[in-house]
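Weekly structure sync, notes
Attendees: PL (lead), two postdocs, one rotation student
Agenda item 3: pending single-chain targets
PL asked that the sequence for the first pending target be pasted directly into the notes so everyone works from the same version. It is reproduced below exactly as submitted, 293 residues in total.
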Amino acid sequence: MIDLHTHTDQSDGTATPAALVAAAKALPLEALAITDHDTLAGYDIAAPRAAEAGLELICGIELSTRLEPKPEDRIPGKRAPSVHLLGYFIDAPSPGFREWIVGSQRSRHQRNLTLIARLNSLGVDITLDEVKVIGRNLTGRPHFARILLQKGYVKSNQEAFDKYLADDAEAGVERDEPTLFEAVKRVSEGGGLPVLAHPVRLLGGRDRAKLAVLLEELIAVGLRGIEVFHSEHTPEDSETFASLAHQFDLAVTGGSDYHGGNKPGIELGTGKGNLHLPYSVLEAIRENAAVAR
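Predicted structure, written out during the meeting:
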């Protein structure tokens, strides 16, 4: 069994890289990919631990992007939806790719400063230093949610997003993110395999025809895979996405999207009990990546 979509405390997960490696080895998983948001720090820390433990570790990343609508589909005053892109096999990325990631981290920091100011203006007593104690190197909105919960401003993480943190919430701050198309190009040019993450969240969730059109456009700029198996996907979803992968000759990937305590109910390796990915999935992805190169 393998898991190709996980997060550590170097982004918005709660497990340290070492703890995640230990948990994967204990299951046991045959291979693990760390796909922290907008950083390779979790993988960098985990790599020597995985080598010591005899666990195959895949270098990955999950990039936050925006899907810009076509001019005719734009709605005045409404921001383009957020889309996540996975990148695999980027253990030796080009210097340009690492520099680009740093730019994304700066954008995240600026959003955090503005978010703190807006929360304070609403009477919420919170500081960025408090949030950084939890978020550490890559503080994001899930860490804000935990502080809001701890201080009693909300009763759940979901309420924190609904009331304060979502783009359209009271204190919401839109982050300057790259477009999905730019991110696909960057991962590809950086030596990685670009994969569309959890497609069930896209285009209303389950519009196969619209997703097919988007995939064609993304393939033209370098997309090489689609996440078919995910904790949020029903068997019918996975069947649809597998069909699209076959139609467009895309690599089939999958993973739990494990975040530890930040996403209760999603377990490493098995997600919500709906995942059991064999090692052959990773072998097929590697073949696809080799052909792309």
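Discussion points:
- The domain at 104-165 is CATH 1.10.150.650 (DNA polymerase; domain 1).
- The chain has two domains: 2-93+179-292, 104-165.
Action: rotation student to compare against the earlier draft before next sync.
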